[in-house]
Structures are given as structure tokens and as C-alpha cells.
Amino acid sequence: MTYIAKPRFRHPDLPKNTLGFTRRDYEGAVSTLCAGCGHDSISAAIIQACFDLDLPPHRIAKLSGIGCSSKTPTYFLGNSHGFNSVHGRMPSVLTGANLANRDLIYLGVSGDGDSASIGLGQFAHAMRRGVNMVYIVENNGVYGLTKGQFSATSDKGSKSKRGVINMDAPIDLVSMALQLGATFIARSFSGDKTQLVPLIQAALEHKGSAFIDCISPCVAFNNHPGSTKSFDYVREHNEAVNRLDVMVGRSEITADYAPGTVEMVTQHDGSVLRLRKLTADYDPHDRVSAMTYLQRRQEAGEIVTGLLYVDPEPDDLHVYMNTIERPLNELGEQELCPGPKALDKLNAALR
Amino acid sequence: MLQPTDIKNPAYFHKVVDCQWACPAHTPVPEYIRLIAARRYADAYMVNWESNVFPGILGRTCDRPCEPACRRGRVEDEPVAICRLKRVAADHKGDIRARLPRPVTKKNGKRVALVGAGPASLTVARDLLPLGYDVVCFDGDPQGGGMMRTQIPKFRLPEPVIDEEVGYILDLGLETRFGQRIDSMKWLLGQGFDAIFVGSGAPRGRDLDIPGRKETAANVHVGIDWLSSVSFGHITKIGRRVIVLGGGNTAMDCCRTSRRLGGEEVHVVVRSGFEEMKASPWEKEDAMHEDIPIHNFLVPKSFTHEAGRLTGVMFEKVKPEFDAKGRRSLMPTGEPDVHMACDDVLVAVGQENAFPWIERDAGIEFDKWGMPKVDAATMQSSLPHVFFGGDAAFGPKNIIWAVAHGRDAAISIDKHCQHEDVSQRPPPGFKMISQKMGIHEWSYDNDISNDLRFKVPLRDKAVALKDVRLEVELGFDEKQAFAESQRCLNCDAQTVFTHSLCIECDACTDICPVDCITFANNGTEQDLRTRLSAPSKNLTQDLYVSDALKTTRVLIKDEDMCLHCGLCAERCPTGAWDMQKSLIQMAHAGHECRSSSNA
Known about the structure:
The structure holds 2 protein chains of 2 kinds. By secondary structure, chain A is an alpha/beta fold. Helices cover about 30% and strands about 20% of the residues of chain A. Chain A has one domain: 3-Layer(aba) Sandwich (Rossmann fold). Chain A has helices at about 40-50, 70, 90-100, 110-115, 120-130, 175-180, 195-205, 230-235, 285-300, 315-320, 335, 340-350; strands at about 60-65, 80-85, 105-110, 135-140, 140-145, 150, 185-190, 210-215, 240, 240-245, 260-265, 270-275, 305-310. An 8-stranded mixed sheet of chain A has the order 2-1-3-4-8-7-13-9, sandwiched between helices. Chain A has a 3-stranded antiparallel sheet with strand order 10-12-11. Chain B has a 5-stranded parallel sheet, with helices on one face. Chain B is an alpha/beta fold. The model of chain B has no long low-confidence stretch (mean pLDDT about 95). Chain B folds into 3 domains: about 10-100 and about 445-485, Fumarate Reductase Iron-sulfur Protein, Chain B, domain 2 (Orthogonal Bundle); about 100-205 and about 355-415, FAD/NAD(P)-binding domain (3-Layer(bba) Sandwich), CATH 3.50.50.60; about 205-350, FAD/NAD(P)-binding domain (3-Layer(bba) Sandwich). Chain B is globular and about 90 Å long.
């Protein structure tokens, strides 16, 4: 916990984006999480990604549930919309908000407790419905707020800070998201912003349900030898399948790569993802082989990171439900109360 | 590849304290500013007195090399008002005489002569008297203080302030020969002194030899001589219309003094542009505040006169032109000359050294510009027991340089008299003390005030302009002083990094408000400066580089913009960052400087 507010002074030569903002304009209140918490790095990565994409802060809505992770939206995007929901219920609140106003960019922030335990059902349904959002799970494998019990994502055989061995099988949210139909799926690590920031950017540009499982060490309760979510363990076992650069309009493609090692993926909104392959035979467009690959590597004790699956032409909930193009708050009385004739017609259809 | 920074070398952290590094006397500025904030004025005064000898005088008149260096001026518009805070310590200190050294009764049998009783000589006296030296000070003026008393107008530096701080040194047992001007070095060399220190200043004001100068002698005055006459009360009036020629601080003193002696229309005329004027920006501001216009790019051509009386000055209009090397020259614009009418002219176009009293065959070597050959570190001349300091050593500078010279010369004189090698200079005292008091508690106030620089209140102009001896600046009161002190960034609270404790969690990088922390692969300095979190353009500021971390990366901290807010250390989960106060104190003459006691 920090007691002084972050000084207002910034580096005078800090770059500005096309909106005239510096990165610091995307910050929130100073964090009250434990010093060194991985979640703070994820907040910093979100700030960097939104700055880089020139996103107007007032067009972003950040939603969360309960837990250390779910506190973090206070610490970034101080000028954006926010909703701190009930434990595990962020996905349904986000879905509702998205249905009411499809023009905002939705960023759901959750944790392994919030999404893999109490909110597992909510998580699953948000994924399968294809809600247009970025869903980040700040995954530390531990219940930090209640002093360090294993969470549902703790690996079997990993050791708690008090020396207890976890006997339960872990829930792998990435595998679930793959199986449930999410159209952008990635895994990353809070200690590697060069990987994380472009993934968040690409997810924000993705028009469909984008899920990022971000391993985020808990320095207070899960950063010891025997933990599989510590800084050291993740660094030793991290196997990135690719590296991603996101190019939106203004950035040029300059780097030269050996043929076959780079793939350009143009997303629906025109943004280009440049995927540099680190694992030659990994194909991020094949859902089934991605699932197999993940299981195999997991068995070998590796943590697979990178952009694991992307569908460049996804559909989303609004397409499925054939909703009106405009946000509900822009509709007038005419459109909202179409009159007795329309009501009669509707009633007749239900008879 | 950059090597890990050697933080054991006192110079590294000293440089981070920009104000202290820039101060010729290396005054520990943040240290005394914190004491002022704690209302420990006497303590703040003594920190100053030890470093710069004349806190009350310098707090009103210093050229403040510290302020342009102040880091605050890099993150916002204006630096901390360091100089005027020093005055606060002097104004509010109470009686500190009990804390000063006492006159020494047990003498060491060595005799030292000081030529001139200005700041350099008095500093030598202050450092040598407590060691048991017999010190004799000669000066042509009836009182001590040198140019501080004769050239600085009393409305900037009141007499009691000079009396007090000069008095502290006289009270140490200085033998004064005031009123006795030395006119022969050979005579002085024959008086059997073990060492001689020449601190006679740069006493000659440059004149302006242009047509009409002789005819108008009665109304054209050399600035510093005129100021000195005003100071001693020999001159109390000047004409209604005055032209001051010159753009330095003496010119500013001349014009403001004129305004107080009957000058109603006082104009400053400068050859160069406004920005290039030698006067400090605040002195120009003060002059303009007193309704004195400054005219630029005008070169005086002649003094005009009628019936033996000065009528004005004729100027040629010029403009700056730059050659391929960027050197500036002033070229006539071809426009008609400008005539400005006036009753008196003050010439303040520079000062010169003059050593007519040092016989050229006395054994002291001079260079082709007529300056003595003096070693910049030891202040020793070619005659081993003769030392120079202040303006007499390297030409006109300022009081704070004179003090620094005096300190260095005193060390040399002491070593010389103890038959030691004067070129062996003592290192500064250097201490690092952790400021950690608790989880997020530091023994310094790390919350930074967002206030803009406070202005020092001035006396009402109508009142101030009536009396040449009435101090115009009122000084900060305690509340203002506290508020201004809170602007100080505490740059001596150093960020100290222990690489073996770092887990590379990025917490410090994420929290740093000025993006001065980066974790990256090592490289050359030039390469690294392009890969830092924020642009790194200020090459005068060092990069703090750690040993290789677990991931083989290194920590790089660009010292340039660091606010010393301590957030990196607060957010560090392992204590790899600590805030440690660096206390760097220059050595002074005495036993600890002598090699025999070090052995």
C-alpha cells in the first residue's frame, strides 16, 4: 500500500498520441495492492496499450468483479467508465452493458477466483455467446485477499507458501475458452510487457470475444520455490509460440523476416497483426490443433504463451441477435415506443 | 557495455545533487532546506556557515549557480528559491555565537598574511584561525568585507548583515591592519610570514575611452568607484537623467542606486542583446521593476557636451551577425545614430585585475594578460608560500567562488606550513544513511509540493526608492519559507539499488512518475539512451546501471528527471531499492586533511 499520491510531474519529453494525451493521462488512482504485485504491471500494460491505440478514454468501459484483480480498474483509465460488480458476475453485467451500448469498448478484468471459481459459469457463457469485449484474467493461482489458499487455477502438485501441496486438478481457462468458442485467445505474463502490450492492443482491436489469461505472480503469497506461478518459475518454463506486433494505420511495416516465419493477419477493423512465429508448426487459426498442442506442452510442464488462437473474421452477440446498430441511449421515443400497432403485431407473433 | 555504476565514489551521488554540485563551495543545499522546513533555522545557518561562511550576505547577493542547476527547473518552470531560503536561515537563526569556534589561545607559531579583507581572505582566516595560526589581514579600507561592503549597494545588502558575518571572523582573533594598503609585495615578503594569501579582488573598473570623455569627466563616472563612494557616503546625489552603460550586475547596481539618489529618468544601454547580458535575470527584473528601461544593440560612440557640460551620449545602432562558426559580431545597421540626453553617465563595462603593487621581480610569475600564474586546485602561485584567491586569482567572478578559493587556499596554506605536499587534496566527507523508517515511511518528506515558485515580498517602491540604505527585499516570512522549502525535491535522498534483491517485477518502472527506470539488455551508453522508457536527451546527467540481473538484463536509471519521491522504493517488494541520504561535506583545512593523521 502506498500512501503518497503519484506526483503530478511527468517527464517533459513524454510522447503524445494523436489525441494529444501522454501515457500518464491514461492512469488511474495510485495502486493500493501489495508492492510488486503482478496486477500492477498488467494495469501498466493496459495503460500503454490504450495510449498506443489512441483510444479516447471516455469511450472505454472497464468492468470487474471481486478480488485483488478486480480492484485494479481503479488504478488505470481514470477517465473511463467503470463498474465494479458482484463476485463472479462481471461477465453478465458486461454483456448487458454491451447490449445496451455497443459503441463502447468493453474491458472486463477478473481474477482466477472471480472467473474460475465463483464466476465459472458466467465466464463460460460470456465466451460462448461471443460478447465483443476484452476479458483479462489476472491469474495468480492463489486467493490473495484471504491470505493465500489455493485457487482453482493452482497446478496439481504445486506448493503453497505454508508448504501444503495442492491435490486438486487445475482449471485451464485458455483451454476452456478455446473449447467454448472465443475468437481471440492468448496467454501472457505480467513480467513480460513486450509480449503483453501488443496482445492487449490486438484484443482491443478484435471485434468479438477476446480472452487473455495473464499469469500474474502474487508476491505476497505465491512467489516462492514450489509455486508454479512465481516470477522465477514462469520465466523458466515460458514457451512463447509467437511474438506479435500490432499495426494500426499509421505504423509502417519495416522489419524484414525470413520467409515463412511471419504471418500478417488483417482483422475485421483493418488493423494488422504481424505474427512472428517462434514455434514453426504452431498454427493460431486451428482451434483443434491449438487445444492438442496446449495439452501436450502442459503435460511437459511448459507454460505456452503468445497469441494462441485468432479468428480474423469473428461474429459477435449483436450479429447473432440481430440488434439495432445504434446504442439504446441514442434512440428516441419514436423508436422505443413504436405504438399499439407494433405491439399488436408482436403479441400476435407470440400466440 | 556499460559497467555497473560505482556508487562508492562520492562524486557519483554528489553529481545527482545538482545544486550542491553546481555550488563552488558545495553547500549541502537540500540538507539545510529540510532544516528550514523543520524551523531549525540555527542548524540550517550552521550548515551554511561551515560551507560558505557568509549565509546572510550570500542569501541576498549570491549569483546562485545552484538555481539554474536545480532539478525542479527541469520538471517545471522555475527552480527552488535556494538563495532566498538561505537568507531565511540567517534572518531567523537567533543568536548562534555559542556555536562558533572560540578564539584559540594556544598558537602554532605560524604567521599568515592576508592581502585584502574580502570574502576570499576572510574565508582563509576563518579556516586557519581555529588551527592556531596567527593571521594578519591588511586592507586599504577602514572596515573589513571588501567588495561586499564597497560595491554592493546597501539597499540589497544592509550594513548590519556585513558587520555581523565579518565580525564572526574578526572575533576568532584576526589581527587587522585596516587602513593599511599594501603597496609592495617585496616589502610584505620581507616581513617573515610563513604564508601570504592575496585576496585583493579585481579593483579596477574599465573606463570608456571615446570622444568627449575628457571634457565630460565631471559627469562621467566609473561604476564600481562610484558605487564605493556611495557606499562610504562620499556621494549622495546624481543628476535627474542618468545613462548607465553596461549590462552586468554592476550596471544593475548602478542604475538602481541612481534611482535612489535623485535619478528620475535612468536608462541602461547595452551593446549586446537583452538575453546575452551578463547580469543575472533576476537583477534585470529588479531594475525593470524600478522603472528602468534597458536599451539593447546600441554602441556608445561619443559623449556629447556643450560649454564644458555633458549633454548626452551618441550611440550607433548595431545588429548581431553570426559567422559560420556561430560566433557573433555586432555590425552597424546603417541607421542614423541615436542621441540620448542625460546629466550623468555611469560606466559599468567591466572590471580588471590590477597588481601594480606586485613587483615583477618578486618571484611571482605572471601570464601575458598580467594575471598571476595560479594552480586552480591549490591556489598556489609560482612562489610556494604565496597563494591567490577570489577575483585576484582568475579575474572577476563572485562571492561564492571567492569562498571556495579561500577554502582551498586555507587547506594548501596549512599543508604548506606543515611541510606537506599541497597537491595531495583531501577527499570530501561522504556518508550514506538509509531514510527508511517503516513500510512507507521515510525520514524525509517525499510528498512533493505542486506549488509554483514563491516571490520574495518587496518593500513598497515609493518608499524603497527614497532611501539608498533601506533594504528593498523583505525576505520570506516563516510561512512562505516553509511553502517554498516544500518545493525542494530532496535530491540528496538517493535511489540506491541492490541488484541481488531484485525479482524484476517491474513495480518500480510502473510507478515512476517520470519514467526514469528501465530494465533492458546492456549496451553502450549511446545505444542505451535510445532504449529507455522516456527520451534521454540530457547527456550531462548520468545513467545509473546495475550489475546483470537474473534475466541477464540490467537496471538503468536516468538520473535526469528523478523526483526522489521514493515511490520506486515504496513499490519494491524486496527492498532492492532504498532511499539513502548522501551527505557530502567538503574538507576544510585542519588535521583531517593532513596526510600524517591519515596514515
